[in-house]
Automatic annotation (TrEMBL):
Belongs to the ABC transporter superfamily. PROSITE patterns: ABC_TRANSPORTER_1 (PS00211), ABC_TRANSPORTER_2 (PS50893). GO terms for molecular function: ATP binding. Gene3D superfamilies: P-loop containing nucleotide triphosphate hydrolases. Its main location: membrane. PANTHER family: DIPEPTIDE TRANSPORT ATP-BINDING PROTEIN DPPD, OLIGOPEPTIDE TRANSPORT ATP-BINDING PROTEIN APPD. This is Nickel import ATP-binding protein NikD. The lineage of its organism: Bacteria, Bacillati, Bacillota, Bacilli, Bacillales. It comes from the Bacteria. It comes from Robertmurraya mangrovi.
Amino acid sequence: METTKQTILNIRDLHVQVKTHNGQITLVKDINFELKQGKILGLVGESGSGKTVTSMSILQLHDHKNMNIEGSITLKGKELNGLDNREMRKIRGKDIAFIMQNPMNAFTPVFTIGHQFVETIRTHTSLNKKQAKELAVDVLHSVNLPEPSKLLKKYPFQLSGGMLQRVMIAMAACLHPSVIIADEPTTALDVHNQLLVLRLLDNIRCEFGTSILLISHDLGVISEMADDVIVMQKGRVVEKADVFELFDHPQHDYTKKLLRTRPSLYIEKQPYTYQL
Ligand SMILES: Nc1ncnc2c1ncn2[C@@H]1O[C@H](COP(=O)(O)OP(=O)(O)OP(=O)(O)O)[C@@H](O)[C@H]1O
């Protein structure tokens, strides 16, 4: 029997508005969901449905001058909505890691991967430079990236998109965050790298009990990865169910439409080998 998992991230009555010349426009409204420990929650919906606005709200990355975020966003009971930048910076990366669609945007082009990796580790831990570098090498090795020491000396443009995405996941994983928000983590990758990245995320969840908010417009990916799914349309949650329920008995017409157009993707579950 499934034991009751602890709620790690709790979103209540999230309502995000943006100021425009014509007044305030609502981008998402009445968003309620929770992310349980060690679970993967899929967030699906067509382009423009509000998935990124929701994740940016959790990370408090909106421009506060133009955006108004109402509602409650708690991480292990701590309210994030309204926290100042300094406090959020401590939480982002350490407690909530963010993996974005285009990994090239996550790295500064003028610094080596090693510099950025080591700095990220040192920002959130008390490790010295040498220890941080050793950790970086170990973690890169564990995500099957070849010759980690050489890789650390490279610049982002010298790596493929798939490799960069794996480096980004390795950086996220080594700080053992409670939550990973993965926003279309595989969209820019070929099928081979898609599978590698999804397997890595699943391994991190198994190893560290990390909870993952997996954002995708691709129900094929969601069906293989998620425990529970929420479906968004036009800034609202239209359906919320466990993954089997959603795929076997979709309730909302929009979910039925998404299901009819879904591509299939099979992810072979491997015995767990991820070591840090
Ligand atoms: N800063 C902004 N100012 C005005 N409108 C915005 C802003 N950010 C997002 N929007 C609008 O909010 C809506 C939701 O956008 P969002 O990026 O969350 O969609 P999405 O579901 O993530 O789409 P995609 O799958 O294409 O990334 C869209 O209509 C978008 O144009």
